[in-house]
Write a structure and sequence with these properties.
40% helix; 3-stranded antiparallel β-sheet; alpha+beta; 112 residues; elongated
């Protein structure tokens, strides 16, 4: 996209549709390799479900639900069941940084 077209888009001016169409389909330009035209769609539709699956799996594994009467937690071990803790038994809920085996730290919740 030329500088004039960028300025026109930012300023709200009208641009000829052929100018936008030419820049929108840059993956289909004759000088580009054929895989570039479809590579973005394959990457988008292939990686997005895997990312969503990983996020949901991590979210379900590290559960801490706080209600007025109980705390519901799941231990970090695989296959552990939900554990309910009555609020009267809880003294404090604190974040704790724990070193990772390889490098860095991860955040855990300490319930006492």
């Amino acid at each position: 996209m030329t500088i004039c077209a960028v300025v026109a888009v930012a300023g709200g001016c009208r641009i000829h549709p052929n100018e936008l169409r030419r820049h929108a389909a840059a993956g289909f330009a004759p000088a580009n390799p054929a895989w570039l035209a479809y590579g973005g769609a394959i990457l988008l539709f292939g990686v997005t479900p895997l990312t969503v699956y990983g996020i949901l799996r991590m979210w379900r594994r590290c559960l801490l639900r706080i209600t007025p009467s109980t705390l519901i937690v799941r231990l970090a071990e695989r296959g552990s069941e939900l554990t309910e803790i009555r609020r009267e038994l809880v003294e404090s809920i604190e974040p704790r940084l724990t070193p990772q085996p390889v490098s860095g730290y991860w955040l855990q919740v300490a319930i006492t």
